[in-house]
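Bug #77: duplicate submission created two jobs. Keeping one. Sequence:
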Amino acid sequence: MQKPTTYTATVLTVTNVAGNFYVAKLTLAGPKEMLFQAGQYIIFQIGPPKLRHTLSIASSPADSKTIDILQSVAPMGEGSQWMLGLKPGDTVQFLGPLGKFILQKKSPLRLSEASLRPKVFIATGCGIAPLRSMILDYLETGGTAAVTLWWGLRHETDVFWQKEFEDITARYTNFHAIITLSQPGVPWTGQKGRVTVHVVEETPELAQSEFYLCGTREMIVDMRELLVYNGVPQGQIFTEAFF
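Kept job's structure:
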């Protein structure tokens, strides 16, 4: 993995993609390129010297000169205020890349090759960020195993990137994405309920698959327990918690 480095970047865009969710696109200014592995995160300097804010990279490693970051501003803490204050042309600093929440390999000696197991990605809320990066990277580099994304949100107004995942589904026959809402309105015709139940009931080859979980601590704890109870080895479950 690349050694963490301090980067300076310029904000290109800040977009309110849905409800409390914002996506910022940054272009690297110095160094002008960052080689990272899908699933890794970066740490921003957002105020006084000791004030840090950690966010996963949401974009594909194929573009090493720009990165996307995703933030829910619902908590309205220091990180939320920082994101809401960003505007095009602003300069930001961060340390990265960091983290070992990455796709598993067939062999430690063949780092360019992902494992051949079916891959199930499970997210709640902003936990979609590193999983989006992983999915794009795997499919764009020729991954052939079955890839399924389960994404749990609360309301219709929280849904974003739906069209993007539909386009990816149309482009790659081995990819399938499902959004499920825990508090849907009457018009919603998609999946309903908590994501944890759907995954166990609707994943073929459950014990043969590998699982990537990112979201609330509650979801991760519940999902891990359900997977293990249903025969999935601990070594096939990989997690990153947002809390």
